[in-house]
Amino acid sequence: MRLSLTLAASLAVSAVQASPLVKRSGPVTTPKVDDGIILNYALTLEYLERKFYQDALANYSQADFVAAGFEDPFYTNLKEIYFDEQTHVSFLSGALTAAGITPTVELEYTFPATDVMSFVTLSSVLEGAINAEIKARYLGAAASIVNKDYLTAAGSILTVEARHTAYIRASLAQSPFPAPFDTPLGFNKVFSLAAAFITGGSSPVTLPFMAFPMLTLQCTQYYYEADRSSVTFSGAFKAAQKFGVAKDTPIYAVFFSGLQKLPVQVRITAGNSDYKIDRLPAGISGQVYVVLSKSSTAFNDENVIAGPAILEVYPKGQIPSTPHAKCH
User: Fold this and answer.
1) How far apart are CA 253 and CA 267, in angstroms?
2) Can you tell me the distance from the alpha carbon of 224 to that of 233, in angstroms, rounded to the nearest whole number?
3) In Å, how far from its chain's centre is CA 65?
4) pTM beyond 0.90, yes or no
């Protein structure tokens, strides 16, 4: 039942440059936020999650899931996840309206899933990525939330979303809790992940977030293993040159895993197009996020030149015995 998380993640981020919300005319900077912006940011992402599960329930039957190897009550539990997302949409929209703030609306989305198996695999990526966004807006934004009633409600939503992630990961024979800490990311980093799925529509609310340039991982036939595997970032140096990065500019792949932020200096490959690291950092596991940064110590938005990309990383010596999905 294992599929390539790397492949699914690549499909997920491949549309980022087509998103109508991505209008990067200059350097990405850290946005200033208030409670209304944070709640509308959260609502934007809850709409996306609701639509993802709504489409799956409309496109695939219970029998389809059983035939693909997802036995009962998996389909019933998907309905429960959809109900939770619908409830979160209603709650956040209502909270904004009650506070006299215009709520955002549902946009248009595209999800690169073509069958049950690709849907569940993408669900693992999406849940992990959006939960990174949830952590950003609820964990990362906790210090920015003024109204502590919102903070309490946000924490309540966060724990439910974490259960969704664990359930989907377990259904794919991935560890439901691969690390002792979740990974909070900043607003722009996680907005870059969400923007990949947003393909149209308009909102009465303008959010002060921008997406970074896309970061693509070269497909590999091997599992990513901490303190062992290499990683190639396809076309990354060639793309970075458009932003003034030269051959002698030190660039770092910064891996976000739990509360860790681990930089590894990249090198340019022989073809003068890709960046590469020869060994992943030790001590990372689960769904790990990586950006390219001009700094090895300051990982703020102003130093990020591309990303995030998503990797499923296994502890050293603990890769699965089943074959990894082939590249296509």
Assistant:
1) 10
2) 14
3) 24
4) no
CB 247 within 8 A of CB 69: no
CB 62 within 8 A of CB 79: no
What distance in Å separates the CA atoms of residue 179 and residue 285, rounded to the nearest whole number?
Answer: 6
The identity of residue 325, as a single letter, is: A
What DSSP line would sit under 116-149, residue for residue? HHHHHHHHHHHHHHHHHHHIIIIIITGGG---HH
Across the beta sheet with 260-265, the strand order is 224-225, 304-314, 286-293, 252-257, 260-265
**Cα three-residue angle 69-287-267, rounded to 5 degrees:** 130
CA-to-CA distance for 213 and 239, rounded, in angstroms?
9
Determine the pLDDT at residue 102. 95
**CA–CA separation, 259 vs 9, rounded Å?**
22
242 Cβ contact partners less than 8 Å away, ≥ 6 residues apart = none
Mean pLDDT of the chain: 85
Write down the pLDDT at residue 142: 53
The string of DSSP codes covering 241-268 is: GGGT--TTS--EEEEEETTEEEEEE-EE
CA distances from 308 to 10, 33, 205 (A): 11, 21, 25
Q: How far apart are CA 293 and CA 251, in angstroms?
A: 6
User: Which residue in this structure is represented by tokens 């390219």?
Assistant: 292
